[in-house]
Amino acid sequence: MLAQHIGECEVTKICLIGAGSTVFMKNIVGDVLLNEMFKDCTIALHDIDPDRLATSAMVANKIASSVNASPTIIATQDRVEALRDAEFVILMIQVGGYEPCTVTDFDIPRKYGLRQTIGDTLGIGGIMRGLRTVPVLLDIAADMRVHCPNALMLQYVNPMAINCWALSRLAPDIRQVGLCHSVQGTAFELAQDLGEDFKSIQYQCAGINHMSFYLSFEKRHGDGRVENLYPRLKEIAAQGKEPAPNKVRYEMLKRTGYFVTESSEHFAEYVPWFIKRDRPDLIDQFNVPLDEYIQRCKDQIAGWAAQEKELADAAKLDITYSGEYAARIIRAVKTGRPTIINGNVPNQGLIDNLPTNASVEVPCVIDHRGVTPTRVGHLPPHLAALMQTNVNVQTLAVEALATKKREHIYHAAMLDPHTAAELSLDEIWSLTDDLIEAHGDWMPEFH
After folding, report:
1. CATH number of 99-118+181-290+324-447
2. Among all residues, which ones are annotated catalytic?
3. pLDDT value at position 301?
């Protein structure tokens, strides 16, 4: 069977939805075309913004030329055309964009004294993003059901856990896995902190998206020895030598004994301890960048024209492997040669002390069968309890999407650790009403 799959050479069609995210598109397409077996694949780029789509098509063609590949590149605003007969569908959309929706998610909570850093995964911002994003994902799933029913959806969109859980509940026939770069990205950062070659690092990591923990973090020595690197990481924390942007995560290492995958600016708003309106000293102590995502978006928008000109003027692009999972998955599925990634999948007997069917992030084997998650068993109880505070919010957000009951949106916000630490119940209800009204047609209707 393996030899049969390796020998297959039919043209692969890969569809990228949200391809106007040119930099991310460049990473994915570059990774794919660096594989010799995909040099003549079909790449369908779809976006609702014609200008950004045109730029991405230009960049995709330059990538192909730069790596001596000859793919068929289709750029279309017709989603059905892009999806038709695709084997892999890669989602990288942002419903509502920076304006109006992201700005709304920050501006209205700020009036209540509720500050955020990223607002795309949990918290009131993450809840609102999930409520407006999942209906679009379900529309895409409906198109896939007709035009590429056997395709594998590679879902890169935040809020990852809410999106994946809702898809598995409301579109269970669609093959999908949620992908994030935080596990491998953080492992690379930790290797740098320790002065180690990332290629010598091995780890086991599990939990939920943006709150997975390294259950082991080790170095393979040339003589076969395996060294536990946690004592050295804890020494960095104990001596206060952690990098300034990572003060929150090293603090959590000191308190829990394990290192969390997502960045400090993300993690700070998933818990009630670091952002408090009456404790500005905490913001300074832990270097928490409030409104970081807003500033990041402004910088990206300001740099877009210059970036577009740079890409357009370049005769040849320097294409190197990005470290994203997508191309590895596509290659493993097509050849049958297995690879292991950390993917977001339904908790069906994978982590014993998290709820069944919750979206969990665990090691997964990828081969010609697709995605096969591996069982982790019990997490350390305090880690599972910490994750459960976030799973509670995800549960109610998905329930709101499934039932269209507005009451569950209030419940999701009420159970959010950061929101609950800052606001009263009356304020939470009022804030939720204000956000739903402000988002208008970007939201589905709730009873």
Report:
1. 3.90.1820.10
2. 181
3. 80
